[in-house]
Design a protein that fits this description.
single chain, 249 residues, alpha/beta, 5-stranded mixed sheet, 30% helix
């Protein structure tokens, strides 16, 4: 029988936002892999990430396997590929030993997740592996709930932009209709603030970081000029709504 690799979305950080199905999948798996950032020498940096912290609310420490991924390597492609290969081999070894391996990822495993690349690698390294995913609550959903921002109404589109692609991509989206959500924009906070001003979208926009955690921050986008923000910051710029209740139906 082939081994199962299950990508489990564990939400944006608040352990109460893991779904019942997600908790059941974590507890049913033989081991739970959590991604950790590498130290400068490529080894485990020792930092506990959001996925691991969330998982430990539901499964015992001895069931969790920390695997180093090049989560923070964006300039040295060779180093990034080497780290990915090593991580892939480690998970392949686990699939050769256990019948079910869960991989915990913040947010949702099908939305900008490390799991996507891991699954592709496993299908190459361990042919016949059964790959499954369990959806998770995303940061934009959590921020919308905590801030009161409405993501979509009626016929409005919703555009999700990772600002790692550059602030120009975000500005193009802001020039269009509907709500725009920006992920991973903390390092380009000033550029994002400028894009919001240039497109007239500052007034109702809101950003948040560390959602559901002790250092949670949720503020108006008008405060973005204060300087760099946490990398995993989320921005919601709601659609322009001036048609009254149901105006977009």
């Amino acid at each position: 029988m082939s081994s199962r690799l299950i990508g489990v979305g564990v939400g944006p950080g608040d352990p109460e936002l893991v779904t019942v199905k997600g908790v059941n999948a974590l507890r049913a798996a033989d081991v739970v892999v959590v991604p950790v950032m590498a130290a400068p020498d490529g080894t485990d940096g020792g930092e506990r990430g959001r996925a691991e912290a969330t998982v430990l609310h539901y499964v015992p420490r001895e069931k969790v396997v920390r695997v180093v991924f090049a989560l923070n390597e964006r300039t040295d492609r060779g180093r990034r590929e080497a780290a990915w290969d090593a991580a892939g081999r480690r998970v392949a070894d686990l699939l050769g030993t256990y019948s079910s391996v869960a991989f915990a990822t913040i947010g949702d495993p099908n939305v900008y997740s490390t799991f996507t690349y891991l699954a592709q690698t496993m299908l190459e390294l361990v042919p016949g592996t059964s790959v499954e995913t369990v959806p998770g609550i995303t940061a934009m959903q959590d921020l919308a709930a905590r801030s009161g921002a409405v993501l979509t109404e009626g016929t409005e589109p919703l555009t999700l932009v990772p600002v790692t692609a550059g602030a120009a991509v975000l500005k193009e989206a802001l020039d269009g209709p509907g709500t725009v959500v920006a992920y991973k924009f903390g390092r380009q906070a000033r550029e994002v603030a400028a894009a919001l001003r240039d497109t007239g979208r500052v007034e109702d926009a809101v950003w948040g970081s560390a959602l559901g955690l002790p250092d949670e921050s949720i503020r108006s986008a008008a405060e973005l000029d204060d300087g760099p923000l946490p990398y995993l910051s989320t921005l919601i710029a709601p659609a322009r709504r001036d048609g009254g209740r149901g105006g977009k139906l």
